[in-house]
Amino acid sequence: MIQKKVNQSIVDTVEKAAQYLMSDLGLSEPVTKTHRTIWELFLFFLREKKMDLSDTSGNSKFLDYLLENRPDLLRRGHSPLHSIKLLREYLRSGKILNTKEPWVFHGEIGTNMQEYIAEKIAEHLRESSIQTYRIQLSRFLRYLSKNEIRRVEEIRVEHILIYIKHLPPEHKSNIYIAISIVKRFLKWLFDQNRTTLNLSIQVPSGRYVQQSTLPAIYTREEIEKTLRSGVDRGYSTGKRDYLVLLLAAKLGLRSSDICNLRFENILWDRSVLLIEQVKTSRMLELPLLAEIGNAIIDYLKYGRPKSDEPFILLTANSPFRKMKSASIFSITSTSFRRAGVETANRKHGPHALRHSLAARMLEGQTSMPVISEVLGHGNTNSTMYYMRVDIRSLGVCVLDVPPIREGFYEQFNWKK
């Protein structure tokens, strides 16, 4: 095993590259975490073996090391060589132009997968759903190829069960998604007469029940402190990040809606924001608060890069494009930390600001239908999630326990 002695230069390098992935390229926290783990191991590996980063012969030796010591990193459908390529590109140019592994659907099985995905596109699934299908099916195909499975008729139930067994256990929802998509694809193969076996009936149905947890809540003082001290509005990125925080904290917008905010959504003459929510496709009208309007103007005049993009919030580095939800998470999390707000055991992304807004409205005796309307919920059932944190309102519902009448327990025939 590699003896990982603390080396601040390696730690700093990995941290800067990881921050770039989340803030500038909008990669999710789990994906960035995997890249960070591989980068750190790789740099320590090169240091111990006294090899230079430019020496590509270290790649295969590093893979051998992972196979022996960290096989879990090879089973996640993630290519360590891809991570190494990104690290080299970042250290060489300070940028990463392409972070996506190409979806390769080769051979007979890959051709069938492409046809299946084409049908899903024709069914008008959301682009995010189509991307999930591509990711999960390409990972399944990669697994089949490694096991010399080239044709549809060669797929056996034991292959599928082993694939499921080695899915990373950290995120149960991802396991459910992977199983569901593979199961649907197998059924499609049978329905299309591409195989004589309906393997889908032998695949266990993934079931994921998310445990009901209390939403993360921050006090009014903590949020104001984050807005005041979490970003430096003297810089262009600070102006952008401040606007992001305001939209989440004061209006409760989801990160997807913040990223998708367009110029046409701002009705200055009416002082309202009118958006079509990405998650629900429902229209939502919210007041354009003065501080948010001022923050928009400040960002447009002194912070936003010159671009013909229709989206208001853009990445800080060229090529300037719409921000991604992971970037919104990074901004929120970083701002909490810079402001010195304690986030231990609490969620610290933009949804925490949304939760906190709902909690404050409940404390202010705002009715449930009004809160539902502000948050863009289709019905009040979704909003009931937040009732559990309003202890003051719940206390009103507490009933007094009536006194127990004398002789109550004597009615039972207690056995000694």
From TrEMBL:
<protein>
    <submittedName>
        <fullName>Site-specific recombinase XerD</fullName>
    </submittedName>
</protein>
<feature type="domain" description="Core-binding (CB)">
    <location>
        <begin position="111"/>
        <end position="190"/>
    </location>
</feature>
<dbReference type="InterPro" id="IPR011010">
    <property type="entry name" value="DNA_brk_join_enz"/>
</dbReference>
<dbReference type="GO" id="GO:0015074">
    <property type="term" value="P:DNA integration"/>
</dbReference>
<dbReference type="InterPro" id="IPR004107">
    <property type="entry name" value="Integrase_SAM-like_N"/>
</dbReference>
<dbReference type="InterPro" id="IPR044068">
    <property type="entry name" value="CB"/>
</dbReference>
<dbReference type="Pfam" id="PF00589">
    <property type="entry name" value="Phage_integrase"/>
</dbReference>
<dbReference type="GO" id="GO:0006310">
    <property type="term" value="P:DNA recombination"/>
</dbReference>
<keyword id="KW-0238">DNA-binding</keyword>
<dbReference type="InterPro" id="IPR050090">
    <property type="entry name" value="Tyrosine_recombinase_XerCD"/>
</dbReference>
<dbReference type="InterPro" id="IPR002104">
    <property type="entry name" value="Integrase_catalytic"/>
</dbReference>
<keyword id="KW-0159">Chromosome partition</keyword>
<dbReference type="GO" id="GO:0003677">
    <property type="term" value="F:DNA binding"/>
</dbReference>
<dbReference type="Pfam" id="PF02899">
    <property type="entry name" value="Phage_int_SAM_1"/>
</dbReference>
<keyword id="KW-0229">DNA integration</keyword>
<dbReference type="InterPro" id="IPR010998">
    <property type="entry name" value="Integrase_recombinase_N"/>
</dbReference>
<dbReference type="GO" id="GO:0007059">
    <property type="term" value="P:chromosome segregation"/>
</dbReference>
<dbReference type="InterPro" id="IPR013762">
    <property type="entry name" value="Integrase-like_cat_sf"/>
</dbReference>
<keyword id="KW-0233">DNA recombination</keyword>
<feature type="domain" description="Tyr recombinase">
    <location>
        <begin position="213"/>
        <end position="399"/>
    </location>
</feature>
